[in-house]
Amino acid sequence: MKQDEIVVFDFDGTLISKDTCSEFYLWLIRSSYIRTVFFYLILPYVVLLICSSYTRLFGFNLVGFIATVFQSRSLFVLRSQFISHYFESVGAKAYVDGIAEL
Hints:
By secondary structure, the protein is mostly helical. It is 64% helix and 0% strand. It has helices at 20-30, 33-51, 56-68, 75-90, 96-101. The chain is globular and about 40 Å long.
């Protein structure tokens, strides 16, 4: 029987010692010079959008769009590369007890 794969974004630090979502988006943005430059150019506007409760969702969606626009690699390849980067370079630790509960 094939084991199912699970993708988890741990927002509250229950399973992994660091925030996975922001690290994933930053890693995607930094993987392209064009995305990095564009992100830093519009960063003041993104901050203003996120500060308002009326436009917060649009600000987060804009960051997600910048992180993924013109991405030529598949999500499966990106996932594998990010996991390697996340645990080796960032120094994140997985909490074994929490993963066992999952």
